[in-house]
Design brief:
Layout lengths: L3 H25 L3 E2 L6 E5 L3 H10 L5 E4 L2 E5 L6 H11 L32 H13 L21 H4 L5 H4 L11 H18 L11 H18 L7 E5 L5 H8 L3 E5 L9 H11 L3 E7 L11 H9 L4 E6 L11 H4 L3 E4 L1 H4 L1
Parallel strand pairs: 5-6, 5-7, 7-8, 8-9
Antiparallel strand pairs: 1-2, 2-4, 3-4
Helix pairs in contact: 1-3, 8-9
Length: 348
Protein backbone atom coordinates (compact mmCIF):
# COMPACT_ATOMS: atom_id res chain seq x y z
CA UNK A 1 0.00 0.00 0.00
CA UNK A 2 2.64 2.51 1.06
CA UNK A 3 4.74 2.53 -2.11
CA UNK A 4 2.00 1.80 -4.60
CA UNK A 5 2.68 0.85 -8.23
CA UNK A 6 4.62 4.01 -9.02
CA UNK A 7 6.86 3.64 -5.97
CA UNK A 8 7.60 -0.01 -6.67
CA UNK A 9 8.29 0.77 -10.33
CA UNK A 10 10.72 3.52 -9.32
CA UNK A 11 12.54 1.17 -6.95
CA UNK A 12 12.77 -1.59 -9.57
CA UNK A 13 13.99 0.86 -12.21
CA UNK A 14 16.72 2.14 -9.89
CA UNK A 15 17.86 -1.36 -8.90
CA UNK A 16 17.99 -2.42 -12.54
CA UNK A 17 19.92 0.70 -13.51
CA UNK A 18 22.57 0.05 -10.85
CA UNK A 19 22.91 -3.55 -12.00
CA UNK A 20 23.22 -2.50 -15.62
CA UNK A 21 25.97 0.02 -14.89
CA UNK A 22 28.12 -2.64 -13.22
CA UNK A 23 27.29 -5.15 -15.97
CA UNK A 24 28.42 -2.67 -18.63
CA UNK A 25 31.67 -1.99 -16.79
CA UNK A 26 32.42 -5.69 -16.34
CA UNK A 27 31.68 -6.46 -19.98
CA UNK A 28 33.88 -3.61 -21.19
CA UNK A 29 36.74 -4.89 -19.03
CA UNK A 30 36.50 -8.35 -20.61
CA UNK A 31 34.70 -10.26 -17.92
CA UNK A 32 32.20 -12.91 -18.94
CA UNK A 33 28.85 -11.74 -17.51
CA UNK A 34 25.21 -12.57 -18.21
CA UNK A 35 23.64 -10.39 -20.89
CA UNK A 36 20.09 -10.75 -19.57
CA UNK A 37 19.43 -9.69 -15.99
CA UNK A 38 17.26 -7.74 -13.60
CA UNK A 39 19.17 -7.38 -10.34
CA UNK A 40 21.67 -10.28 -10.36
CA UNK A 41 24.96 -10.76 -12.20
CA UNK A 42 26.97 -13.97 -12.65
CA UNK A 43 30.58 -13.13 -13.38
CA UNK A 44 33.27 -15.41 -14.81
CA UNK A 45 36.62 -15.00 -13.01
CA UNK A 46 39.95 -16.83 -12.84
CA UNK A 47 39.76 -17.59 -9.12
CA UNK A 48 36.44 -17.15 -7.29
CA UNK A 49 38.03 -17.34 -3.82
CA UNK A 50 40.24 -14.35 -4.57
CA UNK A 51 37.28 -12.18 -5.51
CA UNK A 52 35.18 -13.42 -2.57
CA UNK A 53 37.99 -12.47 -0.17
CA UNK A 54 38.58 -9.10 -1.84
CA UNK A 55 34.88 -8.32 -1.64
CA UNK A 56 34.79 -9.33 2.02
CA UNK A 57 37.68 -6.98 2.75
CA UNK A 58 35.62 -4.23 1.13
CA UNK A 59 32.63 -5.07 3.33
CA UNK A 60 30.60 -7.26 0.94
CA UNK A 61 29.58 -10.88 0.71
CA UNK A 62 29.45 -12.12 -2.86
CA UNK A 63 28.36 -15.64 -3.74
CA UNK A 64 30.83 -18.27 -4.93
CA UNK A 65 28.81 -20.21 -7.49
CA UNK A 66 31.81 -22.27 -8.65
CA UNK A 67 35.59 -22.09 -8.65
CA UNK A 68 35.41 -19.66 -11.58
CA UNK A 69 32.04 -17.95 -11.09
CA UNK A 70 30.82 -15.42 -8.55
CA UNK A 71 27.44 -13.73 -8.39
CA UNK A 72 25.96 -10.71 -6.69
CA UNK A 73 22.62 -8.92 -6.45
CA UNK A 74 21.39 -5.41 -5.83
CA UNK A 75 18.21 -4.38 -4.04
CA UNK A 76 16.33 -1.24 -3.02
CA UNK A 77 18.71 -0.68 -0.09
CA UNK A 78 21.82 -0.64 -2.30
CA UNK A 79 23.57 2.73 -2.61
CA UNK A 80 25.69 4.43 -5.26
CA UNK A 81 28.64 4.31 -2.87
CA UNK A 82 28.29 0.53 -2.61
CA UNK A 83 28.01 0.26 -6.39
CA UNK A 84 31.29 2.11 -6.83
CA UNK A 85 33.00 -0.01 -4.17
CA UNK A 86 31.90 -3.21 -5.91
CA UNK A 87 33.23 -1.90 -9.21
CA UNK A 88 36.56 -1.32 -7.48
CA UNK A 89 36.60 -4.93 -6.23
CA UNK A 90 36.58 -6.05 -9.88
CA UNK A 91 38.85 -3.22 -11.00
CA UNK A 92 36.37 -1.80 -13.50
CA UNK A 93 34.83 1.57 -14.33
CA UNK A 94 31.06 1.74 -14.19
CA UNK A 95 29.34 1.94 -17.57
CA UNK A 96 26.15 3.60 -18.70
CA UNK A 97 22.73 2.45 -17.59
CA UNK A 98 20.95 0.26 -20.13
CA UNK A 99 18.10 -2.21 -20.46
CA UNK A 100 19.06 -5.73 -19.42
CA UNK A 101 15.69 -7.37 -19.96
CA UNK A 102 14.09 -8.18 -23.30
CA UNK A 103 10.81 -6.42 -23.92
CA UNK A 104 8.98 -9.73 -23.71
CA UNK A 105 9.90 -9.91 -20.01
CA UNK A 106 8.90 -6.37 -19.08
CA UNK A 107 5.37 -5.76 -17.88
CA UNK A 108 3.16 -3.82 -20.27
CA UNK A 109 -0.06 -3.82 -18.24
CA UNK A 110 -1.22 -1.88 -15.20
CA UNK A 111 -0.92 -3.52 -11.77
CA UNK A 112 -2.02 -2.76 -8.20
CA UNK A 113 -4.90 -0.67 -9.51
CA UNK A 114 -7.00 -0.91 -6.33
CA UNK A 115 -7.56 2.28 -4.35
CA UNK A 116 -5.68 0.94 -1.34
CA UNK A 117 -2.45 0.86 -3.37
CA UNK A 118 -2.88 4.34 -4.77
CA UNK A 119 -4.02 6.38 -1.77
CA UNK A 120 -1.86 5.96 1.33
CA UNK A 121 1.60 7.27 0.49
CA UNK A 122 2.61 9.06 3.69
CA UNK A 123 3.33 7.69 7.15
CA UNK A 124 0.26 9.29 8.69
CA UNK A 125 -2.03 8.15 5.86
CA UNK A 126 -0.72 4.60 6.19
CA UNK A 127 -1.10 4.64 9.98
CA UNK A 128 -4.70 5.83 9.73
CA UNK A 129 -5.51 3.19 7.11
CA UNK A 130 -4.11 0.39 9.25
CA UNK A 131 -6.00 1.73 12.29
CA UNK A 132 -9.20 1.82 10.22
CA UNK A 133 -8.72 -1.83 9.33
CA UNK A 134 -8.01 -2.80 12.93
CA UNK A 135 -11.18 -1.05 14.08
CA UNK A 136 -13.14 -3.51 11.95
CA UNK A 137 -11.57 -6.49 13.69
CA UNK A 138 -13.15 -8.49 16.47
CA UNK A 139 -11.02 -8.39 19.59
CA UNK A 140 -11.27 -9.44 23.24
CA UNK A 141 -11.72 -5.83 24.34
CA UNK A 142 -14.85 -5.60 22.17
CA UNK A 143 -16.67 -8.91 22.45
CA UNK A 144 -16.55 -12.56 23.42
CA UNK A 145 -14.68 -14.81 21.03
CA UNK A 146 -16.20 -18.29 20.87
CA UNK A 147 -13.42 -19.74 18.72
CA UNK A 148 -10.70 -18.61 16.40
CA UNK A 149 -8.75 -16.92 19.15
CA UNK A 150 -5.66 -17.85 17.13
CA UNK A 151 -5.85 -14.47 15.44
CA UNK A 152 -6.08 -12.64 18.75
CA UNK A 153 -2.88 -13.92 20.34
CA UNK A 154 -0.45 -11.69 18.49
CA UNK A 155 3.19 -10.97 19.20
CA UNK A 156 3.73 -8.11 21.61
CA UNK A 157 5.50 -4.97 20.40
CA UNK A 158 8.40 -5.83 22.72
CA UNK A 159 8.86 -9.08 20.76
CA UNK A 160 8.50 -7.44 17.37
CA UNK A 161 10.98 -4.62 17.98
CA UNK A 162 14.17 -6.75 17.98
CA UNK A 163 13.53 -8.14 14.50
CA UNK A 164 13.89 -4.60 13.12
CA UNK A 165 17.47 -4.41 14.46
CA UNK A 166 20.17 -4.82 11.79
CA UNK A 167 21.70 -7.69 13.75
CA UNK A 168 18.47 -9.65 13.21
CA UNK A 169 17.03 -8.29 10.01
CA UNK A 170 20.01 -7.92 7.69
CA UNK A 171 21.53 -11.38 7.65
CA UNK A 172 21.52 -13.01 4.22
CA UNK A 173 20.42 -16.65 3.82
CA UNK A 174 23.73 -17.46 2.09
CA UNK A 175 25.94 -15.60 4.58
CA UNK A 176 29.10 -17.55 5.53
CA UNK A 177 28.80 -19.74 8.61
CA UNK A 178 31.29 -17.66 10.60
CA UNK A 179 29.02 -14.61 10.16
CA UNK A 180 25.93 -16.24 11.65
CA UNK A 181 27.24 -17.78 14.84
CA UNK A 182 24.85 -15.66 16.88
CA UNK A 183 21.92 -16.95 14.88
CA UNK A 184 23.08 -20.52 15.38
CA UNK A 185 23.38 -20.02 19.13
CA UNK A 186 19.96 -18.40 19.33
CA UNK A 187 18.34 -21.15 17.26
CA UNK A 188 20.03 -23.90 19.26
CA UNK A 189 18.98 -22.30 22.55
CA UNK A 190 15.37 -22.13 21.41
CA UNK A 191 15.55 -25.72 20.20
CA UNK A 192 16.89 -26.88 23.59
CA UNK A 193 14.32 -24.91 25.58
CA UNK A 194 11.37 -26.15 23.54
CA UNK A 195 12.62 -29.74 23.70
CA UNK A 196 12.78 -29.45 27.49
CA UNK A 197 9.33 -27.87 27.76
CA UNK A 198 7.67 -30.46 25.52
CA UNK A 199 9.68 -33.56 26.53
CA UNK A 200 10.22 -34.25 22.84
CA UNK A 201 13.46 -35.64 21.44
CA UNK A 202 13.87 -32.90 18.84
CA UNK A 203 12.31 -29.71 17.50
CA UNK A 204 12.12 -28.32 13.95
CA UNK A 205 11.99 -24.55 13.62
CA UNK A 206 11.25 -24.68 9.90
CA UNK A 207 7.41 -24.42 9.73
CA UNK A 208 6.20 -20.83 9.82
CA UNK A 209 2.60 -21.26 10.96
CA UNK A 210 0.33 -23.64 12.82
CA UNK A 211 -1.13 -24.96 9.58
CA UNK A 212 2.37 -25.58 8.18
CA UNK A 213 3.31 -27.27 11.45
CA UNK A 214 0.32 -29.60 11.26
CA UNK A 215 1.11 -30.49 7.67
CA UNK A 216 4.79 -31.09 8.43
CA UNK A 217 3.96 -33.12 11.54
CA UNK A 218 1.52 -35.37 9.72
CA UNK A 219 4.05 -35.89 6.92
CA UNK A 220 6.57 -36.92 9.58
CA UNK A 221 4.10 -39.44 11.00
CA UNK A 222 3.40 -40.87 7.57
CA UNK A 223 7.12 -41.01 6.86
CA UNK A 224 7.57 -42.98 10.08
CA UNK A 225 4.91 -45.49 9.10
CA UNK A 226 6.29 -45.86 5.59
CA UNK A 227 9.80 -46.46 6.95
CA UNK A 228 8.38 -49.43 8.84
CA UNK A 229 6.61 -50.84 5.81
CA UNK A 230 3.22 -49.65 7.09
CA UNK A 231 2.25 -47.18 4.40
CA UNK A 232 -1.25 -48.68 4.49
CA UNK A 233 -1.99 -46.68 7.66
CA UNK A 234 -4.22 -43.94 6.25
CA UNK A 235 -6.88 -43.44 8.94
CA UNK A 236 -6.70 -40.22 10.96
CA UNK A 237 -8.95 -40.10 14.01
CA UNK A 238 -10.15 -36.58 14.81
CA UNK A 239 -12.45 -35.66 17.74
CA UNK A 240 -15.58 -33.71 16.85
CA UNK A 241 -14.27 -30.89 19.06
CA UNK A 242 -11.14 -30.45 16.94
CA UNK A 243 -10.07 -27.21 15.32
CA UNK A 244 -11.02 -27.15 11.64
CA UNK A 245 -7.42 -27.16 10.49
CA UNK A 246 -6.93 -30.67 11.92
CA UNK A 247 -9.12 -32.58 9.45
CA UNK A 248 -8.10 -30.17 6.68
CA UNK A 249 -4.40 -30.92 7.22
CA UNK A 250 -5.07 -34.65 7.43
CA UNK A 251 -6.83 -34.62 4.08
CA UNK A 252 -4.00 -32.62 2.49
CA UNK A 253 -1.60 -35.37 3.53
CA UNK A 254 -3.88 -37.96 1.94
CA UNK A 255 -5.38 -39.38 5.11
CA UNK A 256 -8.97 -40.48 5.55
CA UNK A 257 -10.60 -38.65 8.46
CA UNK A 258 -12.74 -40.60 10.91
CA UNK A 259 -14.54 -38.46 13.49
CA UNK A 260 -14.56 -39.49 17.15
CA UNK A 261 -17.47 -38.20 19.22
CA UNK A 262 -17.34 -36.15 22.41
CA UNK A 263 -19.39 -36.50 25.58
CA UNK A 264 -21.70 -33.74 26.91
CA UNK A 265 -18.79 -32.21 28.89
CA UNK A 266 -16.62 -31.83 25.80
CA UNK A 267 -14.29 -34.76 26.56
CA UNK A 268 -13.37 -37.35 23.97
CA UNK A 269 -15.95 -40.16 24.16
CA UNK A 270 -13.64 -42.97 25.22
CA UNK A 271 -16.20 -45.65 24.34
CA UNK A 272 -16.61 -44.26 20.83
CA UNK A 273 -12.83 -44.10 20.49
CA UNK A 274 -12.53 -47.77 21.50
CA UNK A 275 -15.07 -48.68 18.81
CA UNK A 276 -13.20 -46.70 16.14
CA UNK A 277 -9.86 -48.21 17.17
CA UNK A 278 -11.34 -51.72 17.08
CA UNK A 279 -12.90 -51.07 13.66
CA UNK A 280 -9.79 -49.63 11.98
CA UNK A 281 -6.98 -51.26 13.99
CA UNK A 282 -3.67 -51.35 12.15
CA UNK A 283 -4.97 -49.02 9.45
CA UNK A 284 -4.84 -46.14 11.94
CA UNK A 285 -2.12 -43.61 11.24
CA UNK A 286 -2.78 -41.21 14.08
CA UNK A 287 -5.16 -39.45 16.39
CA UNK A 288 -5.16 -35.63 16.38
CA UNK A 289 -6.03 -34.07 19.72
CA UNK A 290 -5.76 -30.67 21.37
CA UNK A 291 -4.83 -30.39 25.05
CA UNK A 292 -6.45 -28.69 26.78
CA UNK A 293 -9.21 -29.27 24.26
CA UNK A 294 -10.79 -26.61 22.09
CA UNK A 295 -13.54 -26.54 24.73
CA UNK A 296 -10.92 -25.53 27.30
CA UNK A 297 -11.09 -28.90 29.07
CA UNK A 298 -8.13 -30.73 30.62
CA UNK A 299 -9.29 -34.21 29.74
CA UNK A 300 -8.49 -36.57 32.63
CA UNK A 301 -8.38 -39.62 30.32
CA UNK A 302 -5.91 -38.11 27.87
CA UNK A 303 -3.14 -40.60 28.71
CA UNK A 304 -5.58 -43.50 28.33
CA UNK A 305 -6.61 -42.07 24.95
CA UNK A 306 -2.97 -41.98 23.81
CA UNK A 307 -2.26 -45.49 25.09
CA UNK A 308 -5.30 -46.85 23.26
CA UNK A 309 -4.10 -45.50 19.90
CA UNK A 310 -0.52 -46.58 20.59
CA UNK A 311 -1.76 -50.12 21.31
CA UNK A 312 -2.52 -50.59 17.60
CA UNK A 313 0.64 -48.83 16.39
CA UNK A 314 -0.92 -45.41 15.75
CA UNK A 315 0.74 -42.11 16.59
CA UNK A 316 -0.58 -39.13 18.54
CA UNK A 317 -0.54 -35.67 16.99
CA UNK A 318 -1.13 -33.07 19.71
CA UNK A 319 -2.18 -29.63 18.46
CA UNK A 320 0.02 -27.25 20.46
CA UNK A 321 -2.22 -24.21 20.11
CA UNK A 322 -2.98 -24.35 23.84
CA UNK A 323 0.53 -25.15 25.05
CA UNK A 324 0.45 -22.04 27.24
CA UNK A 325 -1.91 -23.93 29.56
CA UNK A 326 0.53 -26.86 29.82
CA UNK A 327 3.84 -25.12 30.52
CA UNK A 328 4.95 -25.82 34.08
CA UNK A 329 2.16 -28.34 34.67
CA UNK A 330 2.57 -31.06 32.10
CA UNK A 331 3.96 -31.60 28.61
CA UNK A 332 2.99 -33.25 25.32
CA UNK A 333 5.62 -35.95 25.85
CA UNK A 334 4.37 -36.72 29.35
CA UNK A 335 0.80 -36.94 28.10
CA UNK A 336 1.84 -39.49 25.50
CA UNK A 337 1.99 -37.43 22.31
CA UNK A 338 4.47 -38.17 19.54
CA UNK A 339 4.33 -35.04 17.36
CA UNK A 340 3.09 -31.47 17.87
CA UNK A 341 3.25 -28.04 16.40
CA UNK A 342 3.82 -25.10 18.74
CA UNK A 343 2.38 -21.63 18.21
CA UNK A 344 5.04 -19.59 19.97
CA UNK A 345 3.08 -16.35 19.59
CA UNK A 346 0.29 -17.94 21.66
CA UNK A 347 2.49 -19.53 24.30
CA UNK A 348 5.03 -16.88 25.24
Amino acid sequence: CYHGPSGLTAQATRVHAMTSRLQAGLKAAGYGVNATFFDTLSIQVDNADTFVNNALSAGFNIHKASDTTVSLSFDEASTDTELEALAAVFGVVLGDSHQGLPKTLTRQTAFMTQDAFNTHHSETEMMRYVRKLSDRDLALDRAMIPLGSCTMKLNAASEMAPITWPEFAFIHPFAPENQRLGYQEMIQNLDDWLSEITDYAAISLQPNSGAQGEYAGLLAIQGYHQSRGEGHRTICLVPSSAHGTNPASAQMVGLDVVVVGCDPDGNIDIDDLREKVAAHGTNISCLMITYPSTHGVFEVVVQEVCELVHSVGGQIYLDGANLNAQVGLTSPGLIGSDVSHLNLHKTF
